[in-house]
Amino acid sequence: MIKRRINLENELAEAWMNHYFCSMAKTIAIANQKGGVGKTTTTINLGGCLGVLEYKTLIIDADPQANSTSGLGFDPKNVNNIYDCLVNGVSTASLILETNTPNLYLLPSHIDLVGAELEMINLEDREFLLKKALEEVSDQYDVILIDCSPSLGLITVNSLVAADAVLIPVQCEYFALEGLSKLINTIKIVQGRLNPTLEIEGMLLTMYDTRLRLANQVVDEVKTHFQRLVFDTIIHRNTTLSESSSHGIPVIMHDAASKGAINYLNLAREILQKNNLTKMGNSDKHIDFELENDFE
Ligand SMILES: Nc1ncnc2c1ncn2[C@@H]1O[C@H](COP(=O)(O)OP(=O)(O)O)[C@@H](O)[C@H]1O
Ligand SMILES: [Mg+2]
Question: How high is the pLDDT of residue 19?
Answer without folding.
Answer: 47
